[in-house]
Design goal:
Layout: H1 2-7, H2 30-48
């Protein structure tokens, strides 16, 4: 909201978040797994579904591009 107060609107949203915690998978405890899921999945989802006026295109669902590759 501070940005909205000074700029008036959001024109584009780059929803870029991600962490990688390296190490053997079997050594990941629940807290470590929660950090990965919260940062890589939950946080971008919450940002993408932000209600107007935070959404740059109210009423238009975001188009996901993560994982798209040309074949």
């Amino acid at each position: 909201p501070a940005a909205l107060d000074s700029l008036g609107k959001i024109d584009i949203l780059v929803n870029n978040a991600g962490i990688a915690l390296n190490g053997p998978f079997h050594e990941f405890d629940d807290a470590r797994l929660a950090d990965i899921v919260n940062t890589n999945l939950i946080a971008p989802f919450r940002v993408a579904r932000a209600p107007p006026p935070l959404s740059p295109w109210p009423g238009i669902p975001p188009a996901p591009t993560t994982g798209r590759r040309g074949c």
